[in-house]
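Working notes for the structural subgroup meeting. M.R. asked for a predicted model of this chain before we commit to crystallization trials. I am recording the input and output together here so anyone reviewing the notebook later can reproduce the run.

Input as submitted:
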Amino acid sequence: MKDLAILGENEADLKVLSLTPLKNGNFKVILSDGEELILNEDEVVKYRLVKGKELSYETLDEVKDKIYLYEAYQKAQKYVTTYFKCTSEVYDYLLKKEYSKDIAAEVCDMLKNSGLLNDSAYLEAYVSKLVRDGNGRLMISYKVKEKKLLGSYVIDEEMYFNTLNRLITSKLKGLKDKKKERLYRYLSQKGYTTEDISHALKGVSLE
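Returned structure, recorded in token form:
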């Protein structure tokens, strides 16, 4: 970008040479310095961009910031609609795409306002999936914290112990000796507490 400190007031101004609508609803803007920008309709209206419109470099920087924000939002929107995501996943995704922390945070807020991000709903669905997949309470707690999900959650106890009993039945089929010791070790590694394991093993023959 030109050094504004050595430019006169008139030299610091750019002009819009052309404004062309595109098939996707955006607009192609060509400036007097040869730069081309792709803007959505909201930005065109906000900055009142028409042919011959003068644009300062300060305003151009602001417009470019909006372009980056809109671009990041479009990518994040596609990311969350392919599979249910939480805020930390979207935030980390945008950082990996080399967007700034400020843009990542603003995009997450935009997605929340539009209803595309809902950590409360995600937490409920995520905990249910963890239970079905055979994760114990301790592992569930760890995975929830790992995703930076806040708030309380409720575990479906019936589903929880049905899954635990299924794991026990399946594991027992492959055990010939030291069944109790091996079961405890296996289930502990999956995050089940000693209390839960003992409760599930009541009435189970380990002979």
